[in-house]
Amino acid sequence: xxxxxxxxxxxxxxxxxxxxxxxxxxxxxxxxxxxxxxxxxxxxxxxxxxxxxxxxxxxxxxxxxxxxxxxxxxxxxxxxxxxxxxxxxxxxxxxxxxxxxxxxxxxxxxxxxxxxxxxxxxxxxxxxxxxxxxxxxxxxxxxxxxxxxxxxxxxxxxxxxxxxxxxxxxxxxxxxxxxxxxxxxxxxxxxxxxxxxxxxxxxxxxxxxx
Amino acid sequence: xxxxxxxxxxxxxxxxxxxxxxxxxxxxxxxxxxxxxxxxxxxxxxxxxxxxxxxxxxxxxxxxxxxxxxxxxxxxxxxxxxxxxxxxxxxxxxxxxxxxxxxxxxxxxxxxxxxxxxxxxxxxxxxxxxxxxxxxxxxxxxxxxxxxxxxxxxxxxxxxxxxxxxxxxxxxxxxxxxxxxxxxxxxxxxxxxxxxxxxxxxxxxxxxxxxxxxxxxxxxxxxxxxxxxxxxxxxxxxxxxxxxxxxx
Lengths: 210, 248
Hints:
The complex is a heterodimer. Chain A is mainly α. Chain A has helices at residues 34-43, 48-59, 62-78, 87-105, 114-122, 141-149, 153-164, 169-176, 180-198. In chain A, α3 crosses α4 and α8 packs across α9. Chain A starts with 33 loop residues before the first helix and ends in a 12-residue tail after the last helix. Chain B is an alpha+beta fold. In chain B, 40% of the residues lie in helices and 23% in strands. Chain B has a seven-stranded antiparallel β-sheet with strand order 3-4-5-6-9-8-7, sandwiched between helices. The longest helix of chain B has 19 residues, at 35-53. Chain B is elongated. Classes of the chains: A mainly alpha, B alpha+beta.
């Protein structure tokens, strides 16, 4: 047990995305018992949907998301002893790491790592979603999901964690390893993109920098 | 028209309830006199309201829950005699992970699935297929007659919105080879399925956990009730209490 097992990176510096990550299964985990399964059910059970949903919004693929969620949930089970604080942000941090592990393992056509994220985050704000995509009708779940999935990654993640999973800014910052100010600006950009698609704001009026 | 650049992030924080009282008051005073910021704040609130109204999260599939159950059962090893775990899974003590996993796969062929696992499957199915309700309304006077002629008993229907569990609607389901009424309630972003069918059961509430779901069972007036949800166990017990009191 070391600091590596702590899920939240604290401190002012932005933790590298591909740090060892909060949770690693220990090589020789002691055999778990029925009591652990019950504790897992009580603490983590209510957040299984949240784990899958985050994996789905990160990976944007149902099958990959199942794998990532399954791997993350098992890691959570094995490391339940390291849980401090609230289970939901802890679990979602594990899901997020499992996603980045998957990306690192996988296709090299996907640019990964801190440099990629910084590049995205610093990219010029071409925040409009293409006009031909059309507006989302209220109550249209599929259209809303598609619109969220169309948001570039760091912004999408902030929106999902805050507006779907209802984490606080502090928790989003902990889960993503980003400073709160960064979380806030990502969230604002994500919402702006969504607002355009919802027809809540006119595309020209928002996002465009003078 | 747009928000003052130095206020924009704070407007989001205000809408998110993330500002302390002093800063919230100061910003509200600014918004009162600034059309751009007022419009931005209204837009933020509208986006949030629509996200809340159309929950876009993806529920975990029944197969994910089942394979998680199986994996945990496989890790919850050592020397126990044959023991029932999870959704009808048989796990052998001392079996290797691989063997246990393949056994688990076999065990998920739904023959002789326990009542609990059937209920969990029904809950997962209702979320996946977007076939949550056959009759969608929060009006109990619409839901109750809807069951007439479809089932041979009359489940009590109440809206528990004041207690934090708004009624979403009703659905016909099948449990243990017979028709059951499923009443659907919401708790924040979570769904509670309440399965009802005629059978005597003890009045006291019993809680159990399965595949990440909590199940609470009780009986009243010749009907058996099973509430199934992924809300936390405390919430589900609160739901049971509220429902039992409202239908006493």
